[in-house]
Specification:
single chain
């Protein structure tokens, strides 16, 4: 019974290890495959021919991956759906281009991909420029609002100062009491209060 339990635990442990390793292997495959394929296109025209063994080891070195990984990519590229094929000659397996494929064709496809990428970059730059213009317009609008607010505040402060001076004049020169002064200046005070309310309502949020 203990032996079976230990075997089960060991199998579960190996399963957990495989699950943890899987994402890393997928990432390595995704990063190395383009380099291996580029190596094939760059070396398919060798005068002495490109053997599978050379391709596996050299592309693994280029892509910084294991020969097992590079072989997997090469076999995929040499499948019936891929642009390459494997043929035996003098007891060696060589990688050749399938009919209908050529380095010049691959070059044109690469240029097309490059053009698409350039168009995407240009579109992103244009969207970025438009966004910056919108932000600048909003900043300019806020600046104008702040300048208008400052003018209204200065005007209000000036009127308040005038009222204060007038109060002192009425009190010192004409001997009016505070109650009489307030009665005389009541209308002007209401105007100032109304102006202050308007000024406050026009202030941007946060000011």
């Amino acid at each position: 019974m203990n032996t079976n339990a230990e075997a089960t635990d060991s199998e579960q442990y190996r399963d957990r290890i495989r699950i943890k390793k899987a994402p890393l292997e997928i990432e390595i495959n995704r990063d190395s495959e383009p380099t291996v394929r580029r190596y094939l296109w760059e070396n398919i025209g060798r005068s002495e021919g490109l053997t599978v063994e050379d391709a596996v080891n050299e592309s693994a070195e280029k892509a910084d991956c294991s020969p097992v990984t590079s072989r997997r990519h090469i076999m995929k590229a040499c499948s019936l759906a891929g642009p390459f094929k494997i043929e035996e000659f003098q007891n060696k397996d060589y990688i050749l281009l399938r009919d209908g494929y050529s380095p010049s064709l691959q070059s044109r496809l690469g240029q097309l991909d490059s053009q698409i990428m350039k168009e995407r970059i240009a579109k992103a730059e244009e969207e970025k420029r438009q966004k910056e213009q919108e932000l600048l317009a909003k900043a300019e609008q806020l600046k104008e609002t702040e300048e208008q607010q400052q003018k209204l505040t200065k005007s209000f402060n000036k009127k308040c100062l005038e009222v204060e001076l007038l109060q002192k004049l009425l009190k010192t020169k004409y001997g009016l009491t505070e109650e009489q002064i307030q009665k005389e200046l009541g209308g002007m005070t209401k105007v100032l209060v109304n102006n202050e309310d308007k000024t406050t309502s026009q202030r941007p949020h946060g000011i």
